[in-house]
Structure formats: structure tokens, C-alpha cells
Amino acid sequence: MSDFAREQIETLNRLYKQQDEVYHGLAVRFGISDTALWVLYGICSSQGPVTQYDLANGWYFPKQTVNSAIAALEKAGMLSLVPLPGPRNRKQVLLTRAGSAFCSRTVVPLLQAEERAFLRFSRDERQAFLLLMGKQLAFLRQETEGIAAP
User: Fold this and answer.
1) Which residues contact 136 (CB under 8 A, 6 or more apart)?
2) How far apart are CA 92 and CA 55, in angstroms?
3) What is the helix (H) or strand (E) element at residue 91, kind and residue range?
4) For the chain, how far is it from start to end, CA to CA, in angstroms?
5) Are 84 and 91 in contact (CB under 8 A)?
6) Are the CB atoms for 38 and 93 separated by under 8 Å?
7) Could you give the 3-state DSSP secondary structure of residue 81?
8) How far apart are CA 42 and CA 73, in angstroms?
9) C-alpha dihedral over 104, 106, 110, 111, to 10 degrees?
10) What are the two backbone dihedrals, phi and then psi, of residue 81, each rounded to the nearest 5 degrees?
11) pTM for this structure?
12) Tens of pLDDT along 49-66?
């Protein structure tokens, strides 16, 4: 691999880590865990009912990690779980009044900031950005499939 390509890959990974740090810093400021931030984010950005399963699968977190974050948020009075009809023990995750107030001060401004930042790109730049990120992720998945554990 060329030195230039290696430098570009390192720059890409550093940018990903810097973006993660932005969200981590917000979670710290909000007084919650990173996963709790993403749970609240998932609820606030959802267009409909959200279950623990939806949050774990949709945000690529282990089920137990999401369950722990939800339990902490439930204990803090921000969430409640409501059983849903159907198979298994499915529960809808709902914001309580305190959770809604918290999200209004934290997650909603975050969603708005993300939108403002993203809209600084032109429409074509946004489409290209998403296309290239998706393509890079697909290539990375393909290239790492054959890597075996020691």
C-alpha cells in the first residue's frame, strides 16, 4: 500500500474518532452514558413506536448494552416500558414527562445542530457523501470477512 493511501486511511479513522468524541462529549455534558444518549436519540428521531429490539438493531448496539442503558434511564425516571401485544416479551420504550423535558434540552438541540451542519453541504455534496460512506463501509465489510480470530 502506498504511504499516501495509508495516510488517507489514518485520516479517515481519526475523523471517525473525532466525530465519536463529539457525541461522547455531549453525553458527558448531559450526565448520561454514550449508549443512553443513543437510546434517547433513537427515540427522539423515530417516526413511530420504538422497542428495545429496534434500538439495539437499528443503532448496532448489543442487546444487553441497550437493556442496561434503558434500565438506567428508567431508574432515573426518564423512560417507561410498556408491554406490546404479540410474540415474545416486546416492550415499547416511552419517554416520561421528565424524559421529554430532558430530551427537549439535550437531544432535540443535538438533532437540530446535526441538521444545520449537514445542510451546510449542497444537496449534491450530501448525496455524494452518503454514497461514498456507504460504499466504503461495504468495501470494508467485504475486505474484513476473511480475517480470522487468533
Assistant:
1) 12
2) 10
3) strand 91-95
4) 24
5) yes
6) no
7) strand
8) 14
9) -30
10) -110, 130
11) 0.91
12) 899 999 999 999 999 999
